[in-house]
Task: structure prediction
Amino acid sequence: MTRHLHFFVNVGSSGYHPAAWREPDLPADAFIRLEHYQRVAAIAERGTLDGLLFPDIPVQQPGIAHAPAATLDPVLIASALAVTTEHIGLVPTATTTLNLPYNLARRILSLDHATRGRAGWNVVTTFEPGAARNFGLDTLPERDERYRRAAEYVELTEKLWDSWEDDALIGDQAAGLFADPDKVHATDHRGEFYAVAGPLNVTRSPQGRPVLVQAGASPQGRAFAAAAAEVVYTSQFDTAGAREFTTELRAAAAANGRDPAALRVLPGLVPVLGATEAQARAEFDRLQSRLRPENAPVRALARWLGYPDAEIDLDAPLPEQLTTLPPDRVGPQGFFRSLTEHAKATGHPVRRLLTEFLGGHRVVAGTPEQVADHIEHWFRETGVDGFTIIPAALPAHLEDFVDQVVPVLRRRGLFRHEYEHTTLRGHLDLPVPANSHVREPVSPIRK
Result:
């Protein structure tokens, strides 16, 4: 089968850049306005992109004096967009550490029915200690335990999603026969962390099961992705790192008895467009110039790496001591490793590094042809399946990508001209999993 590109969009607030909310054509409170998200969704759907991913950390982030640093509930936003979209997938983020399995399984599957099979779930374990206190916990479990919980959680969720066999619903109104009770199965799960009776009181998904997405790239996160994820959202800065990550992940998936080809790797990409490369760079510099002194890029870099008090020389390579993972680092380990390994491999001065990444993801600034060249090169040379587009400013930078880069990729035969399926699983060319209560081969892709 000919490979084609796949694209998710990271939909966070007014955009990924901390100064995006200051764009003159946006209201300051765009991040709480449904019409803002509706406009973003309409643009992405016009571009026939695969899905919208809604990030979430259920705690008030610092820095609200100068940026929103807040999000609406992603499941509720996705549910609202189910009404105004027809094709694009909707993937809310929800944590396995702070949600009860039955309730979350029901909410995600309900979203899937509301969209007729366009839902996914971005599975995270949560690293913010403050989030634990919001849910009545003194501290978060340590990383190994969080991922053991997540593995059991996903296993349990899939059992709940399989409670109803595909043909359990009879719906014979004349005879008064609604469902076959023998085809609705109790879960009876008792594990290390959870005990759930089941069954779920929602019928099986129109796409078999909602699509499982995962974004952790620590050793535990990679192992979890290889065992359970269908889409992996990762941070990669160069082709060598992306090729190594993708190869190792697919090999680990095969070792888990999975088809490594049924895994979509979509690293983050921040595209910034201009009529010339210089204009694109100027657009990124314009956003950077709007940062306040306390959020200046070099200070943000130090804080992001976990060394907030470090002195960094802009015209020298990143200091060696800053490329070692801090023992008390709370944030994502995968993002840290991908950036610091890129910094060591290239020896680029910090001044150049700051033009190459935003919040842990690679920035590509250039003309539409140059951005398309970058995407095609990575697609052909690294084994990735596409990208998670991370607009620095929403909706403007997403509109630039859809209207200027997507047509180039279509002309090259790399991306669809129209939606060919009706489900997210279909868009991603992923197989429909068999119901765990029915011993049969995995179904083909369901449109």
Observations:
- The mean pLDDT is 91.
- The CA atoms of residues 146 and 341 lie 26 Å apart.
